[in-house]
Amino acid sequence: AKSAGGNRFEIADPEADARAITRHGLTNALPAALERGEFFIEYQPLVHLGDGSVHGAEALVRWCHPQHGVLGPDRFIPLAERTGLIVPLGRWVLQEAVRQARFWSRRHTDGGPLRINVNLSPAQLQHPGLVADTVDVLERSGLEPGALCLEVTESALIGADEERLGPLRQLAEMGVDIALDDFGTGYSNLANLRRLPVSVLKLDRSFTQGMQRHPADPVDLKIVEGIVSLAHSLELAVTVEGVETAAQAEQLREIGCDTAQGWYYARPGAPDRIHTLVLADAV
Ligand code: C2E
Ligand code: CA
Ligand code: CA
Ligand code: CA
Fold it and tell me: What's the domain of life for this entry (predicted)?
């Protein structure tokens, strides 16, 4: 009887009601939005901490809603996840991002191809077409598998058995990188990392935020140092998210993180931005 209390509250709260209607409306509008091409992708660069050169970019989806304007993924990905629309939407993001990466790689022949990171949601992981779809997208674009990195959250892999990990393992064997996204926010045992087919750890933004203070919290620094040394001993590369200041970048570089992403370098933006940044590098 206690558990029904939360619902009673919501019904009595007109604002919550409006939110629910919006959620309902957004959910219903998703399939047509995909058909009408209302989704678009922004790209945020990943840079090498060593020399600041561009390593690649993460694809981040947005919805240009005819009434509500541009909506961030936090507004609609959970809805798409619940209805299963995330599978065709995720496939579209993959196809579009890989096409874009292939386009970049045609224009920048030196220094190897720019890498493209694409987020995978738990429902996509469970979808039986994942491997075939990914192979298909790569083959049709001509992008080499080694230039693609699929980001999977720690929570999606917690407790995953071999059956669940199989498709990721297959992709990893083809040369696709698998990154453990939002690392440090879940409860996964560090020793568990060894049995996962991942090659990259993406340290969650919460760690970088802890380093914002001057001087940075020594305990946070020690934790990041510990994670980086463990990751490196397991031959995993470490990417840090949410780098907003030069001081953070310097500290993370000293600790030995490999790549970084954050507003300090660039906010997510149109694909041309990435092109411009790479060209600026080359000068
Ligand atoms: P994420 O994968 O952890 O992506 C990083 C988020 O941090 C992005 O938010 C990015 O804009 C934001 N960010 C980057 N640098 C900074 C910084 O320096 N400071 C701060 N405060 N934030 C920064 P965004 O674009 O709103 O995406 C939110 C989440 O939505 C993503 O988190 C990801 O989980 C999900 N998402 C985005 N695109 C897709 C997609 O195509 N498929 C799926 N399944 N999920 C997606
Ligand atoms: Ca991500
Ligand atoms: Ca993340
Ligand atoms: Ca996140």
Answer: Bacteria
In whole angstroms, what is the distance from residue 87 CA to residue 200 CA? 24
Q: Looking at ligand 1, which residue's alpha carbon is closest to its atom 10?
A: 268
Q: Is a pLDDT exceeding 50 seen at residue 1?
A: no
Which pLDDT score, from 0 to 100, does residue 22 have?
83
pLDDT given for residue 46 in this prediction? 97
Residue 111 CA to residue 58 CA, distance in Å, equals 18
Q: Measure the CA–CA gap between 190 and 227, rounded to whole angstroms.
A: 9
Asked if this assembly's ipTM is beyond 0.95, the reply is: yes
Query: What's the pTM?
Result: 0.92
**Mean pLDDT, rounded, of the chain:** 89
73 lines ligand 1 (CB under 6 A): yes
Q: How far is ligand 3, taken at its centre, from the CA of residue 222, in Å?
A: 21
Q: Which ligand neighbours the alpha carbon of 77 most closely?
A: 1
Ligand having the closest approach to the CA of 46: 1
